[in-house]
Design goal:
The complex is a heterotrimer of chains A (398), B (512) and C (381). Helices cover 37% and strands 18% of the residues of chain A. Chain A is built from 15 helices and 11 strands. In chain A, helix 10 runs parallel beside helix 12. Classes of the chains: A alpha/beta (398), B alpha+beta (512), C alpha/beta (381).
């Protein structure tokens, strides 16, 4: 069933803080405020123009109950409608979807989505382990770390090829991050370092190495959404939200039977299938100009390229090996450096939407892709392997 | 030994003992090695809440060793290099037990380099090494000249700036006939000028400096080169006192002292103090050292340090007076007006104020919870007490849940059929864990490496596996199953006193 | 704006002081099964539920992203699920926007909370406060509400006797509500003698620790008849956030509630709530809040809360016939409880507490200390 929007919604303002592990100079509301200011400046608006705020952040990482109350000091929510959503890693994308729904509904004309996290104030891996059922799995869980995806790829494609492609992906992301002044970690890695890194980067779990895993960052991201009429009045280049889909799955994720009679479906493929079908997109690899994917680890990222682009066999590996996912390639991915470079969990998925929108606008600076961007895709990931997928368009012509 | 940011690798090791934190070493009994390229090897021995650090050639027997080059090692220790970045990009490596080495991070207070006072020679060096970067090409458009600085006395030297085609080059020594030459008798006078404590004209007038060649060019130096800013260093008490009084006249507010005719003496005690008197008459103010017989008002402050605190806003005059650390003689009323007569003292930026200290609040939050199991999970845990794995399955698709769940997520119906499975099974996938996440409740980490196995229990088919630990000494013997090939068969080892929890099974072991 | 939003079915378990016999999955599942059996709704990707909105609180659940434990019991496997980590009434507002936007035709909205699970409810609400100043002072919802109570009672002429009336009435009304928490009947003397927990709030003035869960099915106007022949329409929603620090605001001003209700009235086309709305369900965490929120939504004159009670305002305006939050609903779920009772009244299904001629109803709930955030929903037949 195609998505029949009540009215169109455009992104008219984008603000991000620098992502870092040392923001001890600001407290939480101040960090939120930086991004809010940046987004308002970008849009040329003041808080008077905002009707509603959507706030997303997992309170147990910073141990603040009902944090949107305290954050009012920095979010500008005073006197406004305000909603709070928390869905784990996907939350940033969820706030974007929520903002889209709120504006499209006609209930609000201009909505500000805020994603935020200050991981240094708590214990991240402890926080993630705390997701699990206290009666059972919390005692067994290893945070978000698993070697299972490396195991999958090695089994399917062979150890040498799999390990190389994972690191190749990682280095491409690092090269992109080096062009993004806001990125948290950019090491200046080179492809020649692959054999060395394969052998020397410390292992975390199984064949998942330290270099292949995302960082833990502090930061905030704010995106302002407006109805079509206001978007056209207030912005020279609004980025239109075409559609979005959210797919969750149950708590248990130790689904490692490894029996092909019982395939394990991933939410990524399901999300892509339904989103593209209802929007009549038959060849996503041809359709999209850029993809900001939530990539918490390089192994997962490589695997999910196959799901999101509905590929088969080893086509997805080739995209990485042939560097087609690099800026300037056929299917540029994560020109911002992605999640592997910066991961303030509550904001991360919103950053994907923000960066995809910057690409559509042509405003990504040094990490702008060289060809025109008409159709952009952004994904969010989190929880127990959940996916959020959002499509952005340059023109209102679908 | 080479210095990085003014610090030697040796400095880090030589200060380890004084920076040692006993709390971080509790329960640790191990040796750690440091292999720092360009500097040498050190061995750290930690035992019984004490430590020993020694330079060595032999790092055999160390539980783990950090390997890095000197610059990175110093940089990480003083906060100039991000430690995590260095580790992730391979600039810092750790051989051996990574987890163990991680403990050393809590054993030492941060290394803080000792603040060095800059000497006259240091300032002169710094001035000339920054001259070229301070050059302003626009102000020197069309200029073709040589400017010689001939600085005499201790710390001095001769330098010439060659300016041509909008570029500036600095060389030591001087040409035969420089376009302009500045001769300064004493280097320390030139430092005073550069630091704003004196000015060139005072030197010239006092015969402490002279100009040869084109005087006009000399007068333009302030445009051709941007102002010299001294590197940040901390002001001592004496520095503040001197600065305060050297700026007093500038801070005088004539409007507030229109009809005033008075002498105000500041008698500052202590080794950093001194006596100064401000004389106010006819709307003007002059300052002299010493005091007249009967000053109109006299402020006596016992310790210079207290007065500095007041001037910096960390304390106030009334606190001093109440504590008997200061007193007023003569006209008290006038003393009360000082805040209007002289504008507030502002310490010099980039020279005096220490960096703002960031306050950090550390707190562990703990709220006890009492979790209900409900009938489904309750039954599952209850049977664990009887050393049975008894769980439920979906009546529609046959999916077996481990542990038991209220519903089948796929079919969206209650999982009403119960059955016993296992307790033995085959391993389908093992997570070989090198890095242990700390337990969110206790903060403890498990010993690594350890294996978390996913077991297809007997009686189960499909994907739902039972997750638990494998006996640590057997992790390298485990083979994963896949499709119809069976993985290593394992059996649970039960606790003697099961309580109805996941650890009623202590771990699994190979079924042989 | 597009079509109206229909509320087709509701489900709830009984409010309990300590549901030791069930974990939240069981509680939710009971509500889920009731919704399915009432409406026969499916989860088909074309015609069924594609998106579920849940409401819960990570701190009370003591689990990060606590909605990850509910996905299967609410049927959200391979469907959307969005967690409203705020007062449930905002979930209703958000669900309205999902449907009005055209993105979803049907929304399943479910929530749970177990206040009994934590050793101290006050330790949890203490965490709402900033770690540097308010938290170490020991501020929590109870003592902050107490400060608001003291100021408001002085401003509006509300006395101990008035508060006692509110409590006694709440218990009487709740006794007619089979889902209400079972509390002892009390008389005004019991209330006025009950021990102080934070002056002027007494134990009996404050809502007791409660566990509860609920479910609701919403859909677009076009599809309502597939699920019910008696839909209730959600026609208005507004929310508003006030400043954070107590010293930055006048805590008796009702700033956020006035704004929230005026926005909800505007959306629903209501000019005079007193005459146009027949029933009001207000979240009174503490007895003083009943007259205070009544002022905020405009059915009691500003500063006249005490007189309003004396003149029988609570009965005249059909306020909290369910017993209100005061009788016991968990923090964060008060709004859903209010909306559910409005729904039942509008449909004529409120049993012994049913009144005649209910055409429009209002549900209100607050979130954050001293009602920093307020929201209002308007429902009609």
């Amino acid at each position: 069933m195609a998505h029949k929007k009540n009215r169109n919604v455009g992104i008219i303002g984008i603000g991000q803080t620098k992502y870092s592990s040392h923001r001890e100079d600001v407290n939480q509301p101040e960090l939120v405020h930086e991004a809010v200011r940046a987004a308002l400046d970008d849009a040329g608006l003041t808080m008077n123009d905002i009707d509603c705020i959507v706030h997303g952040n997992m309170e147990l990482f910073e141990m603040i109950h009902q944090p949107d109350c305290w954050h009012t000091l920095g979010s500008g929510a005073l006197g406004k409608d305000s909603i709070r959503i928390t869905t784990g890693g996907t939350v940033g994308a969820t706030t974007a979807c929520a903002a889209d729904n709120l504006v499209a509904s006609g209930m609000y004309d201009v909505v500000m989505a805020i994603g935020f996290e200050k991981l240094q104030e708590g214990h991240t891996t402890g926080g993630i382990t705390n997701m699990a059922d206290p009666l059972w799995f919390r005692n067994l869980q290893t945070g978000a770390l698993t070697g299972s995806k490396a195991y999958d790829l090695i089994r399917e494609f062979g150890e040498e090829r799999a390990k190389n492609v994972s690191l190749m992906y990682r280095i491409i992301m690092d090269k992109h991050a080096s062009k993004n002044p806001l990125a948290h970690r950019a090491f200046g890695l080179e492809f020649e370092q692959i054999p060395d890194l394969i052998n020397t980067s410390p292992k975390l779990v199984g064949d998942l190495k330290l270099i292949e895993m995302c960082s833990q960052s502090d930061g905030a991201c704010v995106v302002i959404f407006a109805c079509e009429k206001k978007a056209k009045e207030l912005s020279k280049k609004p980025v239109w939200v075409r559609d979005h889909i959210t797919v969750h799955r149950e708590e248990t994720f130790v689904i490692f039977g490894y029996d092909k009679k019982y395939p394990f479906p991933q939410t990524h493929r399901f999300a892509a299938k339904h989103l593209y079908e209802r929007n009549n997109i038959k060849k996503p690899l041809d359709y999209f100009d850029v993809f900001e994917m939530y990539d918490p680890a390089s192994w997962w990222a490589v695997d999910w390229i196959r799901d999101f682009f509905q590929l088969e066999g080893d086509e997805h590996l080739k995209l990485v090996e042939n560097k087609e996912i690099m800026i300037g390639g056929k299917m540029p991915m994560n020109p911002s450096g992605g999640v592997i470079a910066s991961n303030p969990i509550g904001a991360t998925a919103l950053v994907r939407v923000a960066e995809a929108a910057l690409q559509v606008r042509g405003d990504a600076g040094d990490h702008q892709i060289p060809t025109e961007v008409n159709h952009a895709l952004a994904s969010g990931f989190g929880g127990t392997m959940w996916t959020v997928l959002m499509m952005l368009e340059k023109e209102l012509n679908w | 030994m080479a210095e990085y940011w003014g610090v030697k690798v040796e400095d880090i090791f030589n200060t380890m003992q004084e920076r040692f934190r006993v709390e971080g070493a509790k329960g640790v009994d191990a040796t750690f090695g440091y292999d720092i390229a360009g500097a040498g090897k050190w061995k750290l021995t930690v035992k019984n809440d004490t430590m020993k650090i020694e330079k060595t050639d032999d790092l055999a027997g160390c539980a783990s060793t950090m390997i890095a080059d000197s610059e990175t090692f110093v940089g990480v220790n003083i906060g100039k290099v991000d430690g995590t970045n260095a580790f992730m990009s391979g600039k810092v490596k750790v051989d051996g037990d990574l987890g163990a080495f991680g403990k050393t991070s809590k054993m030492f207070k941060k290394y803080v380099p000792a603040k060095k006072e800059m000497t006259t020679a240091d300032y002169i060096q710094d001035m000339f090494s920054t001259l070229v970067e301070r050059f302003q090409p626009k102000a020197a458009a069309g200029l073709d000249a040589t400017i010689t600085y001939n600085i005499g006395g201790e710390g001095g030297g001769i330098w010439t700036a060659h300016i041509k085609d909008g570029k500036c080059e600095l060389k030591t020594g001087k040409p035969d006939k420089p376009t302009t030459a500045l001769n300064i008798n004493e280097a320390k006078d030139w430092v005073d000028v550069m630091l704003g404590k004196s000015d060139p004209f005072s030197l010239l007038s006092a015969g402490k400096a002279s100009i040869e060649g084109e005087t006009g060019l000399a007068l333009k130096l302030g445009e051709i080169f941007a102002k010299y800013v001294a590197p940040v260093q901390e002001f001592g008490v004496r520095d503040y006192i001197l600065d305060m009084f050297s700026t007093l006249v500038q801070r005088f507010q004539p409007a507030a002292a229109a009809d005033l005719d008075a002498t105000i003496t500041y008698d500052i005690g202590g080794k950093d103090g001194g006596v100064w008197t401000a004389t106010i008459k006819g709307g003007k103010c002059t300052l002299k050292e010493g005091q007249p017989d009967k000053p109109t008002t006299k402020l006596c402050i016992n310790e210079a340090k207290d007065w500095v605190d007041v001037m910096l806003g960390k304390s106030d005059p009334f606190s001093l007076l109440s504590a008997g650390k200061a007193s007023i003689e003569g006209e008290t009323g006038l003393a009360l007006k000082l805040g209007e007569i002289f504008s507030k003292y502002v310490p010099p930026t980039g020279g005096g104020t220490p960096e703002q200290e960031l306050l950090v609040l550390k707190k562990t939050i703990s709220v006890n919870m009492r979790y209900a199991t409900g009938p489904v999970m309750g039954k599952f845990l209850h049977m664990m007490k009887e050393k049975k794995i008894y769980t439920n399955k979906c009546p529609k698709c046959g999916r077996v849940h481990l542990p038991a769940r209220e519903v089948c997520a796929e079919c969206r119906i209650p999982a009403t059929e119960w059955l016993e499975v296992g307790p033995k099974g085959q391993v389908r996938y093992m997570e070989y864990v090198y890095y242990a996440s700390p337990d969110p409740l206790t903060g403890e980490t498990r010993e690594t490496p350890y294996g978390m196995i996913n077991i297809l229990l007997d009686g189960c088919v499909g994907n739902d596996t039972f997750a638990h630990y494998i006996r640590r000494d057997q992790i390298d013997r485990i083979k994963n199953g896949n499709n119809d090939v069976s993985g290593t068969r394992v059996r649970p080892v039960w606790s003697d006193k099961p309580t109805g929890s996941v650890f009623d099974i202590k771990y699994f072991e190979i079924d042989e | 704006m597009g079509n109206r939003v229909a509320l087709c079915a509701v489900a709830q378990i009984k409010n309990e002081g300590d549901a030791w016999h069930a974990r939240f999955q069981n509680m939710l599942h009971e509500c889920f099964e009731s919704i399915i059996s009432q409406t026969k709704v499916t989860f088909d990707m074309e015609k069924g539920i594609r998106n579920v909105i849940t409401c819960s609180d990570d701190v009370f659940d003591a689990r990060t992203i606590s909605d990850n434990g509910v996905t299967d019991v609410v049927g959200a496997q391979f469907r959307g699920e969005e967690k409203m980590a705020q007062e449930s009434i905002n979930g209703l507002g958000y669900a309205m926007s999902c449907i009005l936007s055209g993105h979803d035709d049907i929304i399943l909205f479910m929530g749970h909370a177990k206040e009994s699970q934590t050793e101290s409810r006050n330790m949890v609400t203490n965490l709402t406060f900033d770690p540097f100043y308010c938290r170490p002072l020991g501020m929590d919802h109870v003592n902050v509400n107490a400060m608001q109570a003291r100021s408001y009672m002085a401003k509006a002429g509300v006395s101990e006797e008035h508060l006692a009336k509110v409590v006694v009435r709440s218990r009487k009304n709740a006794a007619k509500n089979p889902y209400a928490r079972e509390n002892k009947m009390v008389d005004e003397k019991d209330v006025m003698n009950s021990p102080l927990i934070a002056d002027p709030i007494r134990e009996l003035h404050y809502y007791p620790v409660t566990d509860w869960a609920y479910g609701m099915l919403l859909c677009s106007e076009a599809r309502a008849k597939e699920f019910t022949d008696n839909p209730v329409w959600l026609t208005g929603y507004g929310s508003c956030m006030d400043s954070y620090f107590l010293g930055d605001k006048d805590i008796t001003s009702n700033f956020s509630l006035k704004n929230a209700s005026s926005r909800a009235y505007k959306m629903a086309g209501i000019k005079d709530p007193k005459s146009e709305i027949n029933l009001f369900e207000l979240c009174d965490h503490s007895a003083y809040q009943l007259p205070m929120w009544a002022e905020g939504i405009g059915i009691a004159d500003e500063g006249k809360g005490g007189k309003w009670i004396e003149d029988g305002g609570m009965d005249k305006y059909n306020v909290n016939l369910s017993g209100g939050m005061l009788n016991g609903n968990p923090l964060l779920l008060g709004g859903a409880a209010r909306a559910i009772d409005c729904f039942l009244q509008l449909r004529g299904e409120a049993g012994d507490r049913q009144i005649k001629g209910v055409k429009k109803a209002l549900a209100q709930a607050s979130y954050g200390p001293a009602g920093q955030h307020q929201a209002v929903v308007i429902m009609e037949k």
